[in-house]
Design a protein that fits this description.
The protein is of the alpha+beta class. The chain has helices at residues 87-91, 152-160, 179-197, 224-239, 252-260, 262-267, 274-288, 334-349, 423-438, 441-446; strands at residues 2-6, 16-22, 29-30, 35-40, 45-49, 54-59, 66-68, 72-77, 242-250, 294-297, 302-305, 311-313, 315-317, 320-322, 325-326, 363-367, 386-390, 394-400, 403-417. It contains ten helices and 19 strands.
Amino acid sequence: MATEFKLPELGENMESGDIVAVLVAVGDTVAVDQPVLELETDKATIEVPSTVSGVVKEIFVKEGGQAQVGQVIFTVDADGKTPAPKPEPEAKAEPEPEPEPKPKPEPEPKPEPTPEKPQPEPAPPPPETPAAKPAPAAPAAKQPGRPAPAAPSVRRLARELGVDINVVPGSGPGGRISQDDVKNHVKKLNTERPAVSTAAPTAEATPLPDFSKYGQVEREAMSNVRRATARHMARAWATIPHVTNFDRADVTELEKLRKRYAKQAEAAGGKLTVTAIILKIVAAALKQFPKFNASLDLAGQEIIYKKYYHIGVAVDTDRGLLVPVIRDVDRKNIIELAAELNQIAEKARNRKIGLEDLEGGSFTVTNLGGIGGTNFTPIINPPEVAILGIARGATEPVFIEGEFVPRLILPLSLSYDHRLIDGADAARFLRWLVEALENPFFVLLEG
């Protein structure tokens, strides 16, 4: 009896994927949990395990195609009997006389739609003059040119929340506006905003000229990862008010320590990089500054503080940028983090990373120092509220105790969501990181 194998759920908000490889063929025996399909989704390339066992009878997909969740991928003969579909290709030689059905030009005499006479019935309805005008809105009609009736404290609250006080309906006598009126107006705007933000401007809506008029061009289909990155980054930039603070850390002494203990990390299967060290320092900083480990719930008008410290690390791959997550960074030492960071980066580059490795991050670190550059402004990875960028360190002359000495300076950039985090908070957070990088003992003192 034939049993169907359908594409199972792939993850949250994932409906389909591109088929990279079909790992079975007709006649193969498959077992439950055996990888049968290699699929590229918006986030990663994954191996899909079988939920059925038996001999493959028929396959309904092929490499290069697309598969939807719930679609039948193949059928198996649960009895274990190998089907004999092989004589079918031999029978394909018989349909040679099939060219006979070509003389089917009978549908030609279907020019019946021509006699359809357009019935010009454009009878414009006579413009009805409204007899009774709708009663004007009685509540709080603001006079043009006159300031809205509100106390200075209410006006200040409106400014802080980014609301025009003149459009807030007042519930007090004579339309006077209270603080509750401002808050209710903001709450109404935020509940309506999701419908607007989903229609945020996208690159797809921008018409492009015909570039071939100017010279030779080549088109290449975007990968799933690149399409997802484009959507995600455009939405993040359109909906989050980004601000970036910059600072620099003298990591001369830290670099000496890193080199001293590098072999210890290599013995554990990792590489003692600046990223691994900064992961540990960032986890300690997030405990000191919980706003940076939070998310905004605009619909509920709440701030969600996370009590876990899962930090995403941006990894450059041949398919685009992936951000695998290192979990419970605060509970691991730097050697353990170095080993795990090396393993998960290799998985990302070799297309072996799973969806669970890319979810649940509360903060992100991206390091371009291995490539170059003096600074950059990273884009926040929502629903997170901040991201730390690391550029390439360089030896510079620093004036210390009356003389210039060579010091290794590391540029840092912190992008943050200005709806939750103020500039002073960001400056303090960066200063804390710099102190910890310049004096590792500082982390022990501060916890």
